[in-house]
Amino acid sequence: MAKFSTSEVKELKFYVYVYSHPLTDEIFYVGKGKGNRVFSHLEDDSESDKVKYINDLKSQKLEPKLEIL
Fold it and tell me: Tell me, what's the pLDDT at 64?
């Protein structure tokens, strides 16, 4: 799993992030977090629409685009 370094976590503090489709740039999730929260959805196994969308991308050999705003 991707991860920020300790110094990056200290620098970022709290942040807003978006998940978007890697080919169309269509945003499908906006979140707020601190630490490595932005990466946690990639390993989530819940039945949420967000996780279903991420799993659909993965089944197409794609990964969502992650951006810190």
Answer: 97
Q: Report the distance separating Cα 36 and Cα 17, nearest Å.
A: 11
Spans of the chain below 50 pLDDT: none
Nearest CA to 16 out of 44, 1, 37, 41 is that of 37
Q: Tell me the sheet residues that pair with 30.
A: 18
Nearest Cα neighbor of 69 from 21, 24, 14, 26 is 14
